[in-house]
Specification:
Elements lengths: L3 E3 H8 L3 H9 L6 E2 L5 E4 L2 H14 L3 H8 L10 H8 L3 H19 L10 H6 L13 H4 L7
Protein backbone atom coordinates (compact mmCIF):
# COMPACT_ATOMS: atom_id res chain seq x y z
CA UNK A 1 0.00 0.00 0.00
CA UNK A 2 3.07 2.27 0.24
CA UNK A 3 3.02 2.88 -3.52
CA UNK A 4 -0.57 4.11 -3.38
CA UNK A 5 -1.34 7.82 -3.55
CA UNK A 6 -4.19 9.68 -1.89
CA UNK A 7 -6.65 11.58 -4.04
CA UNK A 8 -5.07 14.81 -2.77
CA UNK A 9 -1.63 13.67 -3.90
CA UNK A 10 -2.93 12.56 -7.29
CA UNK A 11 -4.76 15.86 -7.74
CA UNK A 12 -1.65 17.86 -6.84
CA UNK A 13 0.66 15.77 -9.05
CA UNK A 14 -1.68 15.63 -12.05
CA UNK A 15 -3.09 19.15 -11.86
CA UNK A 16 -6.61 17.70 -12.10
CA UNK A 17 -9.19 18.58 -9.44
CA UNK A 18 -10.19 15.86 -7.00
CA UNK A 19 -13.80 16.25 -8.13
CA UNK A 20 -12.72 15.47 -11.71
CA UNK A 21 -10.82 12.41 -10.50
CA UNK A 22 -13.93 11.14 -8.73
CA UNK A 23 -15.94 11.84 -11.90
CA UNK A 24 -13.44 9.92 -14.05
CA UNK A 25 -13.67 7.04 -11.60
CA UNK A 26 -17.48 7.07 -11.74
CA UNK A 27 -17.20 6.88 -15.53
CA UNK A 28 -14.85 3.91 -15.28
CA UNK A 29 -11.78 5.73 -16.61
CA UNK A 30 -9.79 5.35 -13.38
CA UNK A 31 -9.71 2.78 -10.61
CA UNK A 32 -8.85 3.30 -6.99
CA UNK A 33 -8.43 1.07 -3.98
CA UNK A 34 -10.31 1.85 -0.81
CA UNK A 35 -8.48 2.14 2.46
CA UNK A 36 -10.05 0.80 5.64
CA UNK A 37 -11.46 4.28 6.20
CA UNK A 38 -13.05 4.27 2.74
CA UNK A 39 -10.64 6.85 1.34
CA UNK A 40 -9.48 6.43 -2.22
CA UNK A 41 -5.93 5.30 -2.93
CA UNK A 42 -4.51 5.25 -6.44
CA UNK A 43 -1.52 3.40 -7.88
CA UNK A 44 1.20 5.69 -9.25
CA UNK A 45 0.43 4.52 -12.79
CA UNK A 46 -2.82 6.47 -12.59
CA UNK A 47 -0.80 9.65 -13.23
CA UNK A 48 -0.06 8.41 -16.77
CA UNK A 49 -3.72 7.56 -17.31
CA UNK A 50 -4.78 11.02 -16.17
CA UNK A 51 -2.25 12.66 -18.47
CA UNK A 52 -3.65 10.54 -21.30
CA UNK A 53 -7.22 11.55 -20.45
CA UNK A 54 -6.35 15.25 -20.40
CA UNK A 55 -4.40 14.98 -23.65
CA UNK A 56 -7.16 13.01 -25.38
CA UNK A 57 -9.80 15.51 -24.28
CA UNK A 58 -7.73 18.37 -25.68
CA UNK A 59 -7.72 16.51 -28.98
CA UNK A 60 -11.49 16.46 -28.84
CA UNK A 61 -12.15 12.87 -27.78
CA UNK A 62 -15.26 12.34 -25.72
CA UNK A 63 -14.96 10.61 -22.38
CA UNK A 64 -16.62 7.58 -23.95
CA UNK A 65 -13.91 7.51 -26.63
CA UNK A 66 -11.24 7.97 -23.97
CA UNK A 67 -12.67 4.99 -22.08
CA UNK A 68 -12.60 2.86 -25.24
CA UNK A 69 -8.96 3.77 -25.79
CA UNK A 70 -7.95 3.16 -22.17
CA UNK A 71 -9.59 -0.27 -22.29
CA UNK A 72 -7.00 -1.24 -24.92
CA UNK A 73 -4.17 -0.87 -22.39
CA UNK A 74 -2.73 -3.99 -20.73
CA UNK A 75 -4.22 -4.89 -17.38
CA UNK A 76 -1.34 -7.10 -16.23
CA UNK A 77 1.39 -4.44 -16.30
CA UNK A 78 2.10 -0.72 -16.31
CA UNK A 79 1.62 0.68 -19.84
CA UNK A 80 4.83 1.39 -21.72
CA UNK A 81 5.69 3.91 -24.40
CA UNK A 82 4.81 1.44 -27.13
CA UNK A 83 1.35 0.96 -25.61
CA UNK A 84 0.70 4.70 -25.62
CA UNK A 85 2.06 4.97 -29.17
CA UNK A 86 -0.41 2.33 -30.38
CA UNK A 87 -3.29 4.28 -28.87
CA UNK A 88 -2.30 7.65 -30.25
CA UNK A 89 -1.02 6.45 -33.62
CA UNK A 90 -4.37 6.84 -35.36
CA UNK A 91 -4.93 10.35 -34.11
CA UNK A 92 -2.86 12.13 -36.73
CA UNK A 93 -5.85 12.60 -39.03
CA UNK A 94 -7.90 13.93 -36.13
CA UNK A 95 -5.18 16.45 -35.33
CA UNK A 96 -4.98 17.44 -39.00
CA UNK A 97 -8.75 17.99 -39.06
CA UNK A 98 -8.49 20.10 -35.93
CA UNK A 99 -5.69 22.19 -37.46
CA UNK A 100 -7.78 22.77 -40.59
CA UNK A 101 -10.74 23.77 -38.42
CA UNK A 102 -8.62 26.25 -36.50
CA UNK A 103 -7.26 27.70 -39.74
CA UNK A 104 -10.84 28.19 -40.99
CA UNK A 105 -11.68 29.82 -37.67
CA UNK A 106 -8.72 32.18 -38.02
CA UNK A 107 -9.78 33.06 -41.57
CA UNK A 108 -13.30 33.66 -40.27
CA UNK A 109 -11.99 36.40 -38.01
CA UNK A 110 -11.23 38.55 -41.04
CA UNK A 111 -13.58 37.08 -43.66
CA UNK A 112 -17.20 36.15 -43.89
CA UNK A 113 -17.85 32.95 -41.95
CA UNK A 114 -20.46 31.88 -44.48
CA UNK A 115 -23.49 32.13 -42.24
CA UNK A 116 -25.71 33.21 -45.09
CA UNK A 117 -27.04 36.19 -43.16
CA UNK A 118 -26.37 38.81 -45.85
CA UNK A 119 -26.61 41.37 -43.06
CA UNK A 120 -23.18 42.91 -43.51
CA UNK A 121 -21.86 44.74 -46.53
CA UNK A 122 -18.98 42.29 -46.64
CA UNK A 123 -21.37 39.34 -47.04
CA UNK A 124 -22.36 40.60 -50.47
CA UNK A 125 -18.70 40.24 -51.44
CA UNK A 126 -17.81 36.98 -49.70
CA UNK A 127 -21.19 35.25 -49.97
CA UNK A 128 -23.05 36.71 -52.96
CA UNK A 129 -26.57 35.40 -53.40
CA UNK A 130 -26.29 33.57 -50.08
CA UNK A 131 -24.48 30.70 -51.81
CA UNK A 132 -23.32 29.35 -48.43
CA UNK A 133 -26.93 28.39 -47.71
CA UNK A 134 -26.74 25.46 -50.12
CA UNK A 135 -24.16 23.85 -47.82
CA UNK A 136 -26.55 23.83 -44.86
CA UNK A 137 -27.35 25.98 -41.83
CA UNK A 138 -24.83 27.72 -39.63
CA UNK A 139 -21.34 29.04 -40.30
CA UNK A 140 -20.57 26.69 -43.19
CA UNK A 141 -17.12 28.03 -44.03
CA UNK A 142 -16.07 27.33 -40.47
CA UNK A 143 -17.59 23.88 -39.88
CA UNK A 144 -16.67 22.56 -43.31
CA UNK A 145 -14.65 23.56 -46.31
CA UNK A 146 -17.14 23.59 -49.19
CA UNK A 147 -16.03 24.61 -52.60
CA UNK A 148 -16.69 28.32 -52.77
CA UNK A 149 -16.88 28.36 -56.52
CA UNK A 150 -20.20 28.08 -58.35
Amino acid sequence: MADLLTITEVSRRSGVAASALRFYEERGLLKSHRAGSGHRRYPRAVLRQIAFIVFAQRLGLTLEEVGTELAKLPLDRVPEGSDWAKLSGGWTSRIDERIAELQRLRAGLTQCIGCGCLSLDRCRLANPGDRAARYGPGPRYWVSDPRRST
